[in-house]
Amino acid sequence: MDNKSRCAWVNDDPLYINYHDHEWGVPIHDDRLLFEFLILEGAQAGLSWITVLKKRDNYRKCFDHFDPKKIAQYNDKKIAELLNNPGIIRNRLKINAAVTNAKAYLQVKQEWGSFSDYIWHFVDGKPIKNHWKSIKQLPSKSAISDAMSKDLKKRGFKFVGSTICYAYMQAVGMVNDHIVDCFCYSS
User: Fold this and answer.
1) Is 9 a catalytic residue?
2) Could you confirm whether 111 is annotated as catalytic?
3) Global confidence as pTM
């Protein structure tokens, strides 16, 4: 590792360092990428993010680069194929949730015009910048992630509990939870 000051959750894995330095907390407004992160955060449930991060390229290949229109059409044969793929997390509930979420995503996009407009409305369209001095101060959920979770569930989404929603908000830059002495805090 270099001498940059980073959030304490980052280990010395180059993949993790790159993710922290260039992705985590960077605001995303691209609908496809927002959908990708929603699926991956759900896949992470009960696991560490590095586990998902190491499988992300495989997810992109076998989930049609997270094209929600294609995923919404997955049938039992495709799901069985995914369940036999060691390059992803082979959990039937999580794979079925990806299909369900693709359908719900398409409904939201039709209603709101873009998924970005919908998801970012929870933070009034701009990132929340927190001022944590220690990783121990980072919450696992918030009133906003509670509201987001409730609304997503009402719309039929799965694996979108408040903790998953908060991690999603951190990942896509809706909330900046870099600690104040991290070099990414001011980015």
Assistant:
1) no
2) no
3) 0.95
Please give the helix or strand (H or E) that residue 101 lies within, else none. Answer: helix 92-112
Which pLDDT score, from 0 to 100, does residue 2 have?
76
The answer, yes or no, to whether residue 108 has pLDDT greater than 70, is yes
What are phi and psi for residue 30, nearest 5 degrees? Answer: -75, 120
Alpha carbons within 13 A on the beta-carbon side of 89: 24
Active site residue 41: yes
Residue tagged active-site, from 16, 24, 36, 41: 41
Q: CA 79 to CA 171: how far, in whole Å?
A: 27
SS3 of 151-183: HHHHCCCCCCCHHHHHHHHHHCCCEECCCCCCC
Q: What is the token pair recorded at 186? A: 């001011």
Spatial distance between the Cα atoms of 68 and 147, rounded to a whole number of angstroms: 24
The CATH class of 14-176 is mainly alpha
d(CA 155, CA 144): 17
At 156-165, the pLDDT tens digits run: 999 999 999 9
